[in-house]
Amino acid sequence: MSTVDRSRLHDLMAVERERFVASHRRSGQLAAEAGRHLLGGVPMAWMTRWPGSHPVFFAEAHGARITDVDGNEYVDLALGDTGAMTGHGLPVVAEAVARQAARGITTMLPSEDAIWVADELARRFGLPRWQLAMTATDANRFALRLARALTGRRTVVVHDWCYHGTVDETLVTVDAHGRTVARPTNLGPQVDPSLTTRVVQFNDVDGLAEALAPGDVACVLAEPALTNIGIVLPDPGYHDALRRLTRDTGTLLVIDETHTICAGPGGATAAWGLEPDLLTIGKPLGGGVPAAAYGLTQVLADRLADVLHADGIDVSGIGGTLTGNALSVAAMRATLASALREEDFAVAVPLAERWAGGVAGVIAQHDLSWTVQRLGCRAEYWFCPPPRNGAAAAAAVDGELDAFLHLHALNRGVLLTPFHNMALLSSSHTEADVDRHTEVFSEGVAALVV
User: Fold this and answer.
1) What distance in Å separates the CA atoms of residue 139 and residue 92, rounded to the nearest whole number?
2) What is the pTM of this model?
3) Residue 307: what pLDDT?
């Protein structure tokens, strides 16, 4: 079995860094200018996670391509970490946004588009009642508030190394003694996370049963498959057990489809026949325009009717002044009407299969103990056998190897999601795009192994 030559890895990384600097001079100049007043030198701190000595500044993006300010063109396999899952600059969305902007962006009044969007979300996901949000973080935060209000319970349960945006209750993990603690990079948590949250390992039915047994849990907030620590798929029967245990203990089940919409037009909920009490989704709904939504069963909607029509709902912790603005809703209608449809997944999923097959072929060629995981049109490679939970996934991260393969690909015109080794395929990609990644990946791996 082959292994990675670590000394060679360091030498190759130095070469790639030099190549990056030489081919991204304008981005380097802009990065220096950005450092004057932008905190961390970027609009959002995680933009520093890209490989290379400074961020790459983009000039334009269309379909599955990005061109940077130095004129370098990339096959974009990151797609805004799902935010641009439909492809960049969808003409239908751009036209809808332009039309709505000319008519008014936000008025505190509903638009007709909101009716269409709610009907479409109900059709896709099977939940009959919906409200809108600006981000999936908002949608998850609102869902947790509703769950606590409906059950009178304060505790929530999440999976270890899950990701549900910047929701305080979910930026957690467990320590060596199994106690709930803040994630290592969680900045300034407002309270001890053990006061709000219990953490269980994904695919651990016994651990889930133990966490729910006291009968004090408002809801389980769960991704159908872990994605932000890498793709961790559910064991057969795990979702059946999750639904049974939540019902048996009077616990609500909230499914977050923000990333797992890659499984199909109705996400994993439709593809796998899940039955959540509430569902949240954000990122791709507006074709790149900030937009999100959360849905719930009719039973829960009926129980909330008086609350949602009460005086003071504007300071209830649900919503915001720009939530449901006409621009975002117009973008959602245009996106859902023209993208993320069966015919789009019919193109994207086979491309993801081709991507996974190409990577698996390179791994087999070099007799490496690496593996590939795929969920719909999302795929990813691991430097280990497939993890079954977030703890194993986190332990398997190889930062040096990640950084080299990402920078090697970037220098050759292929962008991967910077947080892990994930590729997201869209109907804008082509087989040639996929094969280019396989070629670049093969070259990078061949340079490393002994």
Assistant:
1) 25
2) 0.96
3) 87
